[in-house]
Design a protein that fits this description.
Length: about 450
């Protein structure tokens, strides 16, 4: 049954995907889909990883210790036996000898939450830590000193500006769960919101497109990658297809052309530029505030004045839930370095009309691309064609401005740790498989 007391962030989305689950027998749980129509564009959330998937919990533990204690009681069958765990502080665990899958190379695991970057770097340099998470600029300097960057996670996130307010579903045309869609409160296609298009008004729609393209052309992506991201983050122009894969086509590049950007703004009717509030969540690990500040400075060069608003994500999130966000904001899209399918799934999910969270951008064309992609499962060549068509569309309409594909690299001390290979994972920064790490003899 639905739990009205649940505060799960994705609860609303789940309710529009599933009917109530029920137990069929001792070994079977049935999870019926509410309707097949919205399934494809939500599949990325349903199986997106620890932050968005569903997991199985121990009812026995829940019944014995109660709801509050069950939340902090670790239950598992993995190769580490937790001894101490304080959420957001530390984890201490002992290796499980003769574990059925793998016996860890180290006898003990001690993980610490250390928020300050320079403290983590100092701990690695002084031997207080064997492995740390580090920003790319730190990774570059540490590698130069002889430490090693572990890239086996094989994923990245697009550092991206979401052009908020572009809610393009039309109540006269589109339905959701059998009823006409709602006009979102953040949908304000007017001269105060030059980046917001309106498919029912071709003239305004084209003006807004030119504004978004101009904002993308104003960005010196190479400078951002080299100076802020240590030269370790490849340039990104559109979400979904990295420039490093064979299927990339140079026609999707966005030139760094401030003068051309100014000309486009003039064509759109904004020769003197405009001003808006640029939300930069300052408390989210995959949002690089320095990158966002550089973007704002580059917009200033073409007459666009982005007033930086660095309120926490937790404070700004309600506007996303209510669809009131009506301006560009700094966020990210996850991807992987294996077949980059996850970036495509997430990009489409961000744009599906529905209840719950989205990035203040809802576009039926992108949901359509995703449904086509899902229907071609198993036919990689046909899926690549969909990728290519979608890339053409994204280049033209620019509902997102991506600047770099930021990899998640962990840094290890090669004098103490070797052989650590993580499982590739959709969620950036999801450290895992530490049991494969071996001590250096």
């Amino acid at each position: 049954a639905d739990n009205p007391e649940s505060t799960a962030g994705g609860g609303a989305t789940l309710l529009t995907t599933w009917d109530a689950w029920f137990v069929e027998d001792d070994y079977t749980v049935v999870a019926p889909f509410d309707t097949p129509e919205p399934l494809a564009v939500r599949w990325g959330w349903i199986h997106g990883g620890e932050s968005s998937g569903q997991c199985i919990l121990s009812k026995d533990v829940y019944d014995r210790v109660g709801e509050e204690a069950a939340v902090t009681t670790l239950v598992g069958t993995g190769p580490w036996d937790p001894q101490v765990w304080t959420a957001g502080v530390e984890l201490k665990a002992n290796a499980v000898v003769d574990h059925w899958r793998v016996t860890p190379g180290f006898a003990q695991l001690h993980m610490l939450e250390v928020p300050e970057e320079q403290v983590r770097v100092a701990m690695l340099r002084t031997g207080q830590a064997d492995i740390i998470e580090a920003a790319l600029k730190s990774v570059k300097s540490l590698v130069d000193e002889g430490f090693e960057a572990n890239a086996t996670l094989r994923n990245f996130y697009h550092a991206a500006v979401f052009m908020g307010g572009n809610f393009w579903y039309d109540p006269a045309v589109h339905t959701f769960e059998g009823e006409a869609v709602n006009i979102r409160p953040g949908f304000k296609p007017d001269d105060e919101h030059p980046w917001i298009g309106d498919p029912t008004d071709p003239v305004r729609h084209e003006r807004a497109r030119k504004v978004r393209v101009a904002m993308s052309m104003a960005l010196d992506r190479a400078a951002i990658s080299e100076t802020i991201l240590g030269g370790l983050a490849p340039i990104s122009y559109i979400p979904g297809i990295p420039i490093t894969v064979p299927e990339w086509n140079d026609k999707w590049e966005i030139p760094f052309d401030p003068e051309g950007a100014k000309a486009l703004l003039a064509e759109a009717g904004y020769a003197d530029g405009f001003e808006f509030d640029f939300w930069i969540p300052n408390d989210f690990p995959n949002v690089d505030v320095e990158v966002a500040q550089a973007i704002a400075a580059m917009w200033e060069n073409i007459g666009i004045r982005a007033k930086q608003n660095t309120i926490a994500y937790t404070a700004g999130r309600p506007n996303l839930m209510t669809k009131e966000q009506d301006s560009p904001w700094m966020w990210f899209m996850v991807g992987d370095g294996i077949n980059y399918a996850s970036a495509h799934i997430r990009t489409a999910t961000y744009n599906a009309h529905g209840v719950g969270w989205n990035g203040a951008v809802e576009i039926p064309e992108l949901a359509s691309f995703q449904n086509r992609w899902e229907s071609l499962a198993g036919d990689r060549d046909a899926q690549i064609e969909v990728f290519s068509e979608r890339a053409d569309w994204l280049k033209e309409w620019m509902p997102f401005i991506t600047v770099a594909d930021v990899p998640k690299l962990w840094v290890t001390n090669p004098e103490t740790v070797t052989g650590w290979k993580m499982f590739p994972h959709v969620e950036p920064g999801t450290v895992n498989n530490l049991e494969t790490a071996q001590p250096v003899k």
